[in-house]
């Protein structure tokens, strides 16, 4: 049965129109790295487990702990009115629609505004990765107020995040997406830093320390490299933005 199992019911009563940061694996593992960083930095509460249709029926365990968990989980920080959707595995795009449908009612009940994250593959340079924002009608002013620029080219968001964004448009729910230039081959902590500092921070008003994210870039790349290789081997499961120029 599709469901979200809430583990900390008292948290629900303390949330007031929270913002949710989505962290499904994708290009450069930008969303995954950013989501993991938020959970760890703010020591967020393990709020719920996601057993929605489309989520692979596997169990995961963490280093140093024998406790088993489902692969997709929700974390909460009531002081910051912040939620994070964390996934330890890829989600297929055709399954992401089931996930979005399952989450949709819960979004409505809590009046959640989701921020989806995606990388757009670009050759790595010394320049700071470019960032821009997109969204559905009704919340676009949030991007302008946060000083987040508009896209400089026509493009699309594919993979599971693209499926979830499509569902948001179809259902008329508010949705924001942040897109950042990312390394197409390796985990990209620098792109995750940019999306946090220049995207998530101004949209939420939450200051997020990122010094350790940059200082630990090598360790993060090594830790996430196996997942990144899996994403490359199954490109259709990888959240990514890409230009549409080739189709025009």
Structure summary:
The chain has 248 residues and is α/β, with parallel strands linked by helices. The protein has eight helices and twelve strands.
Q: What general form does the structure show?
A: globular
What is the fold named in CATH at topology level? Rossmann fold
What share of the residues does DSSP label as strand, in percent? 15-25%
CATH superfamily: PAC-like subunit
Query: How would you sum up the major sheet?
Result: 8 strands, mixed
Notes on the protein architecture:
The radius of gyration is 17 Å and the shape is globular. With 248 residues, it is of the alpha/beta class. The model has no long low-confidence stretch (mean pLDDT 87). The strands form three sheets. It has an eight-stranded mixed β-sheet, sandwiched between helices. Helix 2 (30-41) packs across helix 6 and helix 3 packs across helix 5 (159-171). The termini are far apart. It has eight helices and twelve strands. It has a single domain, classed as Rossmann fold, CATH 3.40.50. It is 38% helix and 24% strand.
């Amino acid at each position: 049965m599709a469901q979200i199992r809430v583990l900390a019911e008292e948290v629900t009563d303390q949330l007031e129109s929270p913002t949710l940061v989505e962290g499904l694996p994708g290009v450069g593992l930008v969303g995954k790295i950013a989501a993991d960083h938020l959970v760890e930095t703010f020591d967020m509460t393990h709020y719920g487990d996601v057993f929605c249709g489309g989520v692979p029926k596997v169990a995961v365990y963490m280093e140093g702990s024998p406790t088993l968990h489902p692969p997709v989980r929700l974390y909460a920080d009531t002081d910051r009115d912040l939620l994070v959707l964390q996934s330890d595995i890829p989600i297929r795009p055709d399954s992401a629609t089931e996930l979005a449908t399952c989450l949709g009612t819960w979004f409505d009940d809590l009046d959640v505004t989701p921020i989806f994250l995606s990388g757009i593959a670009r050759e790595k340079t010394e320049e700071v990765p470019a960032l821009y924002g997109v969204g559905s009608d009704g919340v676009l002013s949030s991007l302008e107020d946060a000083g987040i620029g508009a896209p400089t080219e026509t493009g699309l968001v594919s993979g599971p995040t693209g499926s979830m964004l499509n569902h948001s448009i179809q259902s008329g729910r508010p949705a924001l997406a942040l897109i950042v230039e990312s390394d197409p081959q390796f985990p990209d902590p620098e792109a995750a830093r940019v999306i946090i500092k220049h995207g998530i921070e101004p949209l939420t008003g939450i200051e997020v320390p990122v010094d350790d994210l940059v200082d630990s870039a090598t360790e993060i790349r090594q830790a996430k490299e196996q997942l990144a290789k899996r994403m490359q081997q199954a490109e259709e499961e990888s959240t990514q933005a890409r230009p549409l120029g080739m189709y025009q």
